[in-house]
Automatic annotation (TrEMBL), chain A:
Keyword field contains Signal: yes
Organism: Salibacterium qingdaonense
Protein name, UniProt field: Putative tricarboxylic transport membrane protein
InterPro entries named among the record's database cross-references: BUG, Bug_dom1
Gene3D superfamilies: Bordetella uptake gene, domain 1, Periplasmic binding protein-like II
Domain of life: Bacteria
UniProtKB/TrEMBL annotation, chain B:
Any Pfam family hit: TctA
Annotated ranges, domain DUF112: 20-438
Keywords from the UniProt entry: Membrane, Transmembrane, Transmembrane helix
Residue intervals passing through the bilayer: 20-46, 58-74, 110-132, 138-158, 165-184, 204-224, 258-280, 321-341, 353-374, 386-406, 413-441, 461-486
Top-level lineage group: Bacteria
Official protein name in the record: Putative tricarboxylic transport membrane protein
Keyword Membrane: yes
UniProtKB/TrEMBL annotation, chain C:
Signal peptide residues on this chain, from the entry's feature table: none
Name of the protein in question: Putative tricarboxylic transport membrane protein
Entry keyword annotation includes Ribonucleoprotein: no
One Pfam family matching this protein: TctB
InterPro entries: DUF1468
Domain DUF1468: from-to ranges: 9-146
Coiled coil: none
Keywords: Membrane, Transmembrane, Transmembrane helix
Stretches that traverse the bilayer: 40-57, 77-93, 99-116, 123-145
Length: 343, 497, 152
C-alpha cells in the first residue's frame, strides 16, 4: 500500500520534472534565438499571449479580446494570440505574472490608470516602471451625473455648494477610495477649489451605484461616460461635466459639457494600452509599435471603438512612457492630499 | 393600446425560425457551461459576447438570455451529484440534493431540480411580464440602509441552519464573516488580514470557500468509505416521483417562485441570496423541519425554484430601468450596449418587439430546458456509478479546475485545500458548514451597506429605523429571532408540567 | 478538565479570536468617523471569544458513537495524506506542465493509489476526461487552460 504511494509520487514528480526541464530549455532557446536574430528585425517565435489582469467581461478583458480579434481578422499578426485572464489584487496578480516573464516578449498585458493607482496605494509591488510600455490604444473619460431634479445646473454650482456644505453631498462610485472613480472626481473638484479631504465618497461595488443615485442616497455619481447615456436619454439624470479635453463625439455625449469649458482647468483620461515584460529590446518594441499602430489605424478597429464608445488615443512607446510619468506624479499628489497612500 | 401590438410582434419574433433556433442554442450552451466547473452565468455571457458581435440585436439578446438562465439551470447538477456547487446560486441545493443522491435517489433529485427550475423560471417570467414596470420602482427604493436590514434578516436564519447545537452554528457564522473581512476594505481602501500577500487583496472568492467546505471536505469522507461499492446502481437514474413527492414540491415551488423573483429584482441580491432565503424560509414553515438537510424533497425544490425565479427577476431592473442589479446583469448590460440595444425606461416604447420577444422566448427556453434535461438525467446520474477511487480523483480535479477557471491563479487552489481541511475538521467536530457559507455571503454585504448608510447619513444611526422599508425588515428580523425562542421556552414549560 | 473535546475546540477558537483581534487592533483606519475598517473585525473578534467561552461551559452531550466517528484508522490517514500530497503536486505542476498532462497523471495515479485495479480503463479515462474538458474550455469557450509542454 505504502509502496504504491511512493511509486505514484515518484512517478508523478519524475514525469513532472522531466516535463519542466523540456519546457525551460525550450523557452531559453526561444529567448536566445530572438536575441541573436539581430537588433533591427525581430519577429515573434511562438504564439503571443495577452493577459487581462481581471476576470472575464470587464474593460481590460474586452480590450484584450477585441485587440486579439482585430490582429487576427485583419491579418496584422500571423501568430496565434491567446487572451488569458489573471484576476486578483486589482490587477497586481496579472502584473507580477508578466514581471516574471522578463526577457520573453511574447507576453503582454493590457492596463489603465489602476496600474498607477494600485502601486501608489501600496497594493502592488510592481508599477509601470517595471514594464515596457508598448503602445496606448484608446481613451475613455469620466462623467459626473446628478438626478434630473437636482438643484445644480453646472459643475461650478455643485462645487460651490460642496465648499459650503461638504457633509450634505454624497459622491458615489464603483471603485474603492483612492481608485479611479474617486480620484477622477477629486482631481476635478480640487482644481475648482474644493478641499479633497472634505469630499464624502461612498464606494458601491455590487452594481448598485445608479440605483443609489436615482433613489437619493447619493447625490453625485462619478463614473464612465457610457454608463450615463441611457439614463440621460430617459431624462432621469443629467451630466454636469465630463473630464475630457474637448467635447466628445456621439449622439448624446456631444451635449455633455466638459469641466474645462466651465472654467475648471483640469482633465482626467482613462487611458488603456498594452505593456510588455521588462527588458525588451529596441527591435522588439518597434515590432509591436508598428503592429499596434496598424491596428489602431484600421477600419476594423475604428468600428470596434465606435461599438464600445472608446476614443482613439494612440501613443507609441516613447510618448507613452513620458505620459505615464506625468500622470503618476499628479496621482501621487492627489493621494497625498487625500492622506491615502502606502496603506 | 400599443402594448398589445408590442406583445404580438414579440410573439412573432420569439416563434420565428431564428428566434426558436437561438433560444435553443442558448439554453443548450447555457446548461453545458453551467455544468462545467467554475463557469457560471457571468462567464457564459462573457463567452457569448464575441459570438454575437455581428448578429441581429434581438436574436442576440434572446441567445444571451437563454445562456443566462440555462447556466443557472445546469448549475445544480454537480451540486447534487458531487456536493460540488459549480456556481454560488446552487450551494443551497447541495444541502438536500447531495444527501438524496447518497441515498441512491440521484435521478429523483435531478428531476426535482429540473421541474422546480422549470416552474420557478416560468412563473417568474409571467410575473416579469405583468409587473415589471411596477416592481422596478420598488427595487429602486433599496439603498444601503434597506440592504443592511435585508442582510440582518438573512443572518437571523443561521440558527435554523444548525442541526444540533445553536452555539456551534453561531461560531461557524462568526468565523464565516471573519473570512470575508480578508482583503481590501471597500469603504476605506485599507488592506485587512492579507499578511502582505497580494493574492488576498481582492478577498477570497466565494466559490473557493464553497467548493472547499463542501466538495473537498466530502472527498475526505469518501476516501474513508472508498471501499463501499456503489451498490445502488440500478435505481440511481430513476426519475420516479411519487404523488407525495409532487405534493411536497408544489408548496415550495409556488411560494419560492414569488420570493425568488422579488429577491432577484433587488439589485445586488440575485440567485445566491434567493436560493438561500428560499431554503431557509421553507425550512421555517415546514411541518417536519428536521427532514431538511437529510435529503428532503422540499429542500431541493425550494432553492432550485428560487434561484431560477431570481434570474428572471434580475431582468426587471435591467430591461425596464437599464440598471444592472448584479455582476451578471452588468456584464449582460455591457454586451447589450455593444449590440446597440439600450436597455432602459425607453426600451419598451422604442423596441417593443425586442422587449416582448425576449420575455416570450424565456417561456420557450424554459420548456426546452425541461424537455432536454429530463431524458438526459438517467445518463448524467450514472456518474455516481463510477468506482469510488476514480470518482474521488475526478471530484478533486473538477473542483480544482472550477476554482482555476475563475482566477487563473494557483494560489486559490492552495486556498481551496485549506478550506477543504477546515471543512473536514468542522465536520469531525460537528460544526455545521452551512452557517459559515451563508455568513460569508451576507456578512460582507452587511458590513458594506451598514457603513455606506452611516457615511451617507453622517453617522446618524437612526437611518435604519426612520426609513419604512428598512425598519419593517429589521422588525421581521427581530420577530424571527424572538418568536422561536419564546416558542421553545413555552414548549419546555409545557413539557415540565 | 479539558477532556471533553468541545473544550479543546473552544480553547482553539479563543486563540484564533485573540490572534484575529491583535491584527484588528493594528489596522489603520483612515476615516474620521466612528466606524472604520477596524470596527467590524473588533466586534467579530470579541463575539467569537464570547461564544467560545459559552461553548466551553456547555455540557458534553456527545454520544459514544459520535466520538467514534472522529477516530480515523491509520490506514485511511495514510491514504488521505497521500491524496493531499498528490494534489499538491497537481497544483504545483498545473501551470508548468500544462493541464492535460498533469490531469492525466493525477487521475491515473490517484485512482491507482486509492486501489483502482483496472489499469486499462483507468488510463483511458485519465486521458479522455482531461482532453475533453480541455477542448471544451480552450477551443469552444475560448478560455485558455494552461497548455504547458503540449504544442496546442
Amino acid at each position: 500500500m505504502k509502496k504504491s504511494l511512493v511509486l505514484s509520487l515518484s512517478l508523478f514528480t519524475v514525469l513532472g520534472l522531466a516535463a519542466c526541464g523540456t519546457e525551460n530549455s525550450g523557452s531559453n532557446e526561444n529567448g536566445s534565438a530572438s536575441g541573436s536574430s539581430g537588433q533591427e528585425n525581430w519577429t515573434p517565435q511562438q504564439s503571443l499571449e495577452i493577459v487581462a489582469p481581471s476576470g472575464a467581461g470587464g474593460g481590460w478583458d474586452t480590450t484584450a479580446r477585441m485587440a486579439a480579434e482585430g490582429f487576427e481578422s485583419e491579418g496584422i499578426i500571423d501568430k496565434g494570440i491567446g487572451v488569458v485572464n489573471k484576476e486578483g489584487g486589482g490587477g497586481a496578480i496579472g502584473w507580477s505574472y508578466i514581471a516574471e516573464k522578463a526577457g520573453n516578449p511574447h507576453h503582454m498585458f493590457v492596463s489603465s490608470p489602476p496600474l498607477l493607482l494600485v502601486p501608489l496605494n501600496g497594493q502592488s509591488q510592481y508599477g509601470f516602471e517595471d514594464f515596457t510600455p508598448i503602445a496606448n490604444m484608446i481613451s475613455d473619460y469620466g462623467a459626473f451625473a446628478v438626478r434630473d431634479d437636482a438643484k445644480w445646473d453646472n459643475l461650478n454650482e455643485l462645487f460651490d455648494d460642496m465648499k459650503d456644505n461638504p457633509e450634505d453631498i454624497t459622491v458615489i462610485g464603483e471603485s474603492s477610495p483612492g481608485s479611479m472613480d474617486h480620484i477622477q472626481f477629486v482631481k476635478i473638484a480640487k482644481a475648482a477649489g474644493v478641499d479633497p479631504q472634505s469630499i464624502k465618497y461612498v464606494s458601491a461595488q455590487d452594481g448598485s451605484t445608479m440605483t443609489n443615485l436615482l433613489n437619493g442616497n447619493a447625490d453625485v455619481y462619478s463614473s464612465g461616460v457610457t454608463e450615463t447615456i441611457e439614463q440621460v436619454r430617459a431624462e432621469e439624470i443629467r451630466v454636469l461635466g465630463v473630464t475630457a479635453e474637448e467635447r466628445l463625439e456621439g449622439d448624446v455625449v456631444s451635449e455633455f459639457p466638459t469641466a474645462k469649458e466651465q472654467g475648471i482647468d483640469e482633465t482626467f483620461v482613462n487611458w488603456r494600452g498594452f505593456f510588455g515584460p521588462p527588458d525588451m529590446t529596441e527591435a522588439q518594441i518597434s515590432y509591436y509599435e508598428e503592429k499596434f499602430k496598424a491596428l489602431s489605424e484600421s477600419e476594423h478597429w475604428a468600428d470596434t471603438r465606435e461599438k464600445f464608445a472608446w476614443n482613439e488615443m494612440y501613443m507609441d512607446s516613447g510618448e507613452y512612457t513620458q505620459f505615464l510619468k506625468e500622470e503618476k506624479e499628479s496621482m501621487q499628489q492627489l493621494l497625498n492630499e487625500l492622506n491615502i497612500s502606502g496603506g | 393600446m400599443g402594448s398589445l401590438e408590442g406583445i404580438l410582434s414579440g410573439v412573432q419574433l420569439a416563434f420565428s425560425f431564428q428566434g426558436l433556433l437561438f433560444v435553443f442554442l442558448g439554453v443548450v450552451a447555457g446548461t453545458l457551461i453551467g455544468m462545467m466547473p467554475g463557469l457560471g452565468p457571468i462567464s457564459a455571457i462573457a463567452i457569448m459576447i464575441p459570438i454575437t458581435y455581428n448578429m441581429d440585436p434581438a436574436v442576440a439578446l434572446v441567445l444571451m438570455a437563454g445562456v443566462y438562465y440555462g447556466a443557472v439551470f445546469g448549475g445544480s447538477t454537480s451540486s447534487i451529484l458531487l456536493n460540488a456547487p459549480g456556481i454560488s446560486g446552487t450551494v443551497a441545493t447541495t444541502f438536500d440534493g447531495y444527501p438524496m443522491a447518497q441515498r441512491g435517489e440521484a435521478g429523483k433529485a435531478l428531476a426535482i431540480a429540473a421541474i422546480s427550475s422549470f416552474v420557478g423560471g416560468t412563473i417568474s417570467v409571467i410575473l416579469l411580464m405583468l409587473f415589471a414596470p411596477v416592481l422596478s420602482n420598488i427595487a429602486i427604493q433599496f439603498g444601503p440602509a434597506e440592504y443592511f436590514a435585508l442582510m440582518v434578516l438573512g443572518l437571523t436564519a443561521i440558527s435554523s441552519l444548525a442541526d444540533g447545537s445553536t452555539i456551534k452554528a453561531l461560531i461557524s457564522a462568526v468565523t464565516g464573516i471573519m473570512a470575508v473581512t480578508i482583503g481590501i476594505d471597500s469603504q476605506t481602501g485599507t488592506t485587512r488580514f492579507t499578511f502582505g500577500n497580494p493574492n488576498l487583496l481582492e478577498g477570497i472568492d466565494f466559490l473557493v470557500v464553497a467548493l472547499g467546505l463542501f466538495a473537498i471536505a466530502e472527498v475526505c469522507a469518501l476516501i474513508i468509505n472508498r471501499h463501499e461499492s456503489p451498490e445502488r446502481n440500478g435505481s440511481i437514474g430513476s426519475l420516479k416521483l411519487t404523488k407525495k413527492d409532487l405534493k411536497d414540491m408544489s408548496g415550495p415551488m409556488g411560494r419560492q417562485s414569488f420570493l425568488g423573483f422579488i429577491l432577484g429584482i433587488l439589485p445586488g441580491s440575485g440567485a445566491t441570496i434567493g436560493s438561500f432565503m428560499g431554503y431557509i424560509s421553507e425550512k421555517k414553515i415546514a411541518k417536519n423541519p428536521e427532514e431538511f438537510g437529510k435529503g428532503s424533497v422540499k429542500g431541493v425544490a425550494a432553492p432550485e425554484t428560487a434561484n431560477n425565479a431570481a434570474t428572471s427577476g434580475a431582468f426587471v431592473p435591467l430591461l425596464s430601468l437599464g440598471i444592472p442589479g448584479s455582476g451578471t446583469t452588468a456584464v449582460l448590460l455591457g454586451a447589450l450596449l455593444v449590440l446597440d440595444i439600450q436597455p432602459g425606461p425607453l426600451l419598451v416604447q422604442d423596441q417593443p418587439a425586442l422587449f416582448w420577444g425576449v420575455i416570450i422566448s424565456m417561456y420557450i427556453g424554459n420548456v426546452f430546458l425541461l424537455i432536454l434535461n429530463l431524458p438526459l438525467i438517467p445518463y448524467i446520474a450514472k456518474i455516481l456509478a463510477i468506482p469510488r477511487p476514480m470518482l474521488i480523483s475526478m471530484v478533486i480535479m473538477f473542483s480544482m479546475i472550477g476554482v482555476y477557471a475563475i482566477s487563473f491563479n494557483t494560489f486559490d487552489l492552495y486556498l481551496l485545500l485549506i478550506f477543504g481541511a477546515i471543512g473536514y475538521i468542522m465536520r469531525l467536530f460537528k460544526f455545521p458548514a452551512a452557517p459559515f457559507i451563508l455568513a460569508f455571503i451576507l456578512g460582507g454585504m452587511m458590513e458594506e451597506s451598514f457603513r455606506q448608510a452611516m457615511t451617507i447619513s453622517n453617522n446618524d444611526i437612526t437611518v435604519f429605523v426612520t426609513q419604512p422599508i428598512a425598519m419593517s425588515l429589521l422588525l421581521i428580523a427581530l420577530l424571527s429571532f424572538i418568536v422561536p425562542i419564546v416558542q421553545n421556552t413555552r414548549r419546555k414549560k409545557a413539557e415540565q408540567k | 478538565m479539558l477532556k471533553p473535546v468541545h473544550r479543546k475546540a473552544s480553547l482553539f477558537l479563543i486563540a484564533l479570536a485573540v490572534f484575529y483581534l491583535i491584527l484588528a487592533y493594528r489596522l489603520e483606519s483612515f476615516t474620521a468617523g466612528p466606524i472604520g475598517a477596524d470596527t467590524m473585525p473588533k466586534i467579530l473578534g470579541w463575539l467569537l471569544i464570547l461564544l467560545s467561552v459559552i461553548l466551553f461551559f456547555f455540557k458534553d452531550q456527545e454520544t459514544e458513537e459520535e466520538k467514534q466517528s472522529r477516530r480515523i484508522a491509520k490506514n485511511d490517514l495514510i491514504k488521505m495524506a497521500g491524496v493531499l500530497l498528490l494534489t499538491f503536486c497537481y497544483i504545483f505542476l498545473l501551470e508548468r506542465v500544462g493541464f492535460i498532462v498533469t490531469s492525466f497523471l493525477f487521475i491515473w495515479l490517484c485512482s491507482w493509489f486509492l486501489g483502482y485495479q483496472k489499469h486499462v480503463k483507468n488510463i483511458v479515462t485519465a486521458v479522455l476526461f482531461p482532453v475533453v474538458l480541455y477542448s471544451l474550455f480552450t477551443f469552444m469557450l475560448g478560455i485558455a487552460l494552461p497548455s504547458g509542454i503540449l504544442p496546442f
